[in-house]
Amino acid sequence: MFLPSSAFRNVAFETPLRIERAIEAVRRDGARVEAILLAPYRVSFDWRNSRWSLTVPAGFKAAPSVPPALHGIVPFWGALFEASICHDYAYWTRCFDTDDSKGGRSHADALLASLMRSGGADFADTAEVYTAVNAFGGSHYFVNAYQPKNGLKLESGK
Question: What is the pTM of this model?
Answer without folding.
Answer: 0.84
